[in-house]
Amino acid sequence: MDIVIHVDGQPCHADAQGAVRLLDFLRDSADSKSVKSACVSASCGACTVLLDGRSIRSCTVVTGQADGHSVTTVASTPDDALLRRIQDAFVEFHATQCGFCSPGMVMAALSLLREQGELDEESIRRGLRGNVCRCVGYPAILRAMLSLSSMPSDEHPLPPAPDSDHSSTVRPAARLSGH
Q1: What is the rounded CA–CA span in Å between residue 151 and residue 137?
Q2: CB 100, CB 32: distance < 8 Å
């Protein structure tokens, strides 16, 4: 059985035989190397992507669960204004260092901003708690996110997140610490 997953707007095909993690499919079959493979147990958030607009850990989803759905990675189309603003803010506030966690962190941030719009420090901590950064620490990430939240809404229009709910495929992950 052929599975079709739309990755960054392009259809990608997978063979339904075997239980291949979406993470592995994205990296190996869709050549999406921006999706990082680290803990493969939903503890770090490095593999975070958007599945139909919702933030998920791709290591916890089997390709069959994503059949017919849309996956967005940090390497998606450059005309996504909000994604570009997030990336710019992360650079401006030095919220990247080694860059390993950055793709997953940016995708979780994108989902959070689309779902909630204006954010305060607590909502950012709650929204990014499943994404771990071992190099930069969290103050720079918090500053970058707060800068985006304080922009007038006409500078970063927030389209509504799709209604589909894939939360049952995601296990709880680590908490965002305040150090």
Answers
A1: 23
A2: no
* Residue 133 amino acid letter: C
Which amino acid type is present at position 34? Answer: S
pTM exceeds 0.70 for this model: yes
Beta bridge partners of 11: 6
Q: Which residues contact 141 (CB under 8 A, 6 or more apart)?
A: 90, 93, 95, 105, 128, 133
Helix (H, G, I), strand (E, B) or coil at 62: strand
Helix (H) or strand (E) holding 48: strand 48-51
State pLDDT tens for residues 112-166.
Answer: 998 887 789 999 989 888 888 877 778 889 999 999 876 544 444 333 333 333 3
Contact call for residues 171 and 60 (beta carbons, < 8 A)? yes
Task: Name the 3-class secondary structure at 165.
Answer: coil
- Cα Rg of the chain (Å, integer): 15
